[in-house]
Predict the structure.
Amino acid sequence: MALSVRATISDSKSDFHKEFPYVIPPIYRKLADELLVELHLLSHQKNFKNNSIFATGLKEIFEKFTTGYKPTDHTSKLFNAICNCNGFNPEEINNLSEQLIRETSALKKDNLNNYLSQIKDKTLEHDYYSRINAIGIYKLVTELDYCKDIKNDDLNNEIKRVTEFLSYQYERVEKDISMYKSNIDKMKQAFEIIELNTSSNKK
């Protein structure tokens, strides 16, 4: 990913609205704005590198928080616009994410270590940390076959193991994952309220 040449967030937002000239439903507007700003800031970080962990986290956040988005054909356009306006390649993000999950889900723990070593050696040394990386780790671990039926404590231990293996600070990763789960719960509650209000209005 080439670093964005855009000088300000306003420039990125202007480019975003040119590519996505549609009204964003209020419940999704905050997500779009936060991702747009976050990617803009990351694109100007000297040590930031796009890698499969980051790509997986970005896709996971976007997909979880655009659940139920209508019209459905706008979701890919929205994702592309958020990426493109900040110099990220959405096709590359999608490919890196899909490749990571596809190639790791069936691996055993030792083989996973070997796989992650290759990622770490290529892209993670001196990498700039973002909360998106934390969600990438969370998504990776929850998709592992050997983690599908384990208890929460064991799942957290595996997240910690992978986090430390990749040389990230577990305390930061744990905090960001916890915040992510909390925001998902709030999103679900918001949808429930909307559905209740819609049902009441129809009566």
In short: Confidence is low (pLDDT under 50) at residues 1-6.
